[in-house]
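User: Design a sequence. Structure:
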């Protein structure tokens, strides 16, 4: 008798296990996400899809939330969603991304994250990764320095003070087109590294276009401000001015002192005159 009970319990547990596995498998098949390619290059069309199947015996309302991320955060991320209704066994395919890889596309590793709900109940979530290999990005900068070793960087200089323009990039053989526009509107094209002494005060504008085949072009605009030299007073002039100042204030003090003595004398004279008369 006990042996029969053990057999029944074992069969029941096996059936329950099979049902659980089938249910989990069905839930797994509710949401699928796939991409046409793992890596997209310039000229390709990105195609990423989600496929949702209603595995339930009744008609249901579903909501799919999804977002696209670039690992460095350079892609403008947004949370999107799609509402739809499916009959039992019905499938729906949704295009999550269908962009063209152009020169403006951001190269990098991307992930598409999806979350599926039906009637506000969580069902499943899936993540897919793909890569975009478009034009590479140029890491380039112009440093404005007070010496050729660029030990001090600045955007503010005195008139006729030497300014050093030094380029900084880890990419070789770049095509540079650099110009400096003076405050009076004159334009000079220069090759980096370059140094000059600004002859006039005001705002100097530096424009740079950096290109290389297979890379995105870079356009820079920088500003340098030039002011006149600090006014200086020669020591001899300063000494003369000090002497004049001392004489002036000394004279005022002496006159004031004489007026005080005169005022005191008049008061004393008036006092004794009153007593006598």
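Assistant: Done.
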């Amino acid at each position: 008798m006990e042996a029969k009970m053990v057999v029944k319990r074992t069969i029941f547990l096996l059936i329950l296990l099979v049902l659980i596995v089938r249910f989990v498998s069905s839930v797994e098949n509710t949401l699928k996400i796939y991409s046409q390619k793992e890596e997209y290059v310039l000229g390709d069309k990105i195609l990423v899809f989600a496929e949702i199947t209603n595995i339930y015996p009744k008609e249901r309302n579903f909501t799919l939330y999804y977002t696209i991320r670039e690992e460095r955060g350079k892609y403008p991320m947004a949370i999107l969603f799609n509402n739809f209704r499916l009959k039992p066994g019905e499938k729906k395919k949704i295009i999550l991304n269908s962009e063209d890889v152009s020169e403006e596309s951001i190269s990098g590793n991307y992930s598409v994250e999806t979350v599926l709900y039906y009637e506000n109940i969580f069902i499943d979530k899936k993540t897919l990764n793909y890569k975009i290999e478009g034009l590479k990005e140029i890491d380039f900068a112009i440093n404005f320095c007070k010496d050729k070793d660029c030990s001090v960087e600045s955007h503010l200089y005195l008139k006729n003070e030497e300014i050093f323009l030094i380029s900084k990039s880890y990419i070789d053989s770049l095509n540079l087109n650099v110009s400096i526009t003076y405050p009076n509107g004159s334009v000079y094209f220069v090759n980096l590294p370059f140094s000059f002494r600004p002859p006039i005060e005001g705002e100097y504008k530096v424009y740079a276009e950096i290109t290389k085949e297979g890379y995105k072009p870079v356009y820079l605009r920088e500003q340098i401000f030039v002011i006149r030299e600090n006014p200086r007073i020669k020591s001899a002039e300063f000494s003369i001015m000090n002497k004049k100042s001392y004489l002036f204030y000394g004279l005022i003090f002496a006159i004031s002192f004489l007026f005080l003595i005169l005022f005191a004398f008049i008061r004393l004279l008036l006092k004794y005159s009153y007593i006598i008369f």
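DSSP finds two helices and 16 strands in the chain. Confidence is low (pLDDT under 50) at residues 12-27.
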